[in-house]
Design a protein that fits this description.
The chain is of the alpha/beta class and 141 residues long. It is 43% helix and 26% strand.
C-alpha cells in the first residue's frame, strides 16, 4: 500500500498524519503558522511527501453539520488548489471532517490527557481520523 498523508488545516495550525505501507495511521507532526498564512505550509508538506514517498494527500473538508460548506471549507478547497500547483503529479483529495476535532478531544479526555495539553495533540489526532476515514472509504470500495 502506498503511503498517504492526512491534513487537518486550521487557521493557525496544521495537523499531519501519515499512513504506513501496511495501512496503519499515526500522528506525524503539528505545524504552527501565522494566522491564515497558508503559503508557508507548501514547502514543509512537499518535504514530507518527498521524504516519506507519499502518493496521496487527504485534506479534511470542514462542512457544517447539515452538510453545507462552511467558510473554512472554501479555505481548504483553495489550499488544495495551491498544493496541486506546488506538488504536481500527486493525488490530492478531500474528506468530510465533521466532528473530528470533537472526537479527538473526547479521545484525549478518555486518555486522561490534561485539558491544557489538548491543543498540542488535537489537530494531529483529527488528521489521523481524516486519514482513517479515507482509508475506510477506500477499503469499502
Amino acid at each position: 500500500m502506498d503511503k498517504i498523508l492526512g491534513l487537518d488545516l486550521g487557521r493557525k495550525t496544521l495537523g499531519i498524519a501519515l499512513s504506513s505501507v501496511i495501512g496503519t495511521v499515526h500522528p506525524h507532526k503539528l505545524i504552527r503558522f501565522n494566522k491564515d498564512d497558508y503559503d508557508c505550509l507548501l514547502e514543509p508538506i512537499k518535504q514530507i511527501v518527498i521524504e516519506n514517498n507519499v502518493k496521496t494527500i487527504v485534506i479534511g473538508l470542514p462542512l457544517n453539520l447539515n452538510g453545507t460548506q462552511s467558510k473554512m471549507s472554501e479555505t481548504c478547497l483553495n489550499f488544495k488548489k495551491k498544493l496541486e500547483d506546488y506538488i504536481p503529479n500527486i493525488l490530492i483529495t478531500m474528506v468530510d471532517e465533521r466532528l473530528t476535532s470533537v472526537e479527538a478531544h473526547e479521545l484525549l479526555k478518555e486518555m486522561n490527557v490534561p485539558l491544557k495539553k489538548h491543543k498540542e495533540y488535537v489537530d494531529m489526532l483529527a488528521a489521523c481520523q481524516i486519514l482513517q476515514s479515507y482509508l475506510n472509504q477506500k477499503g469499502a470500495n
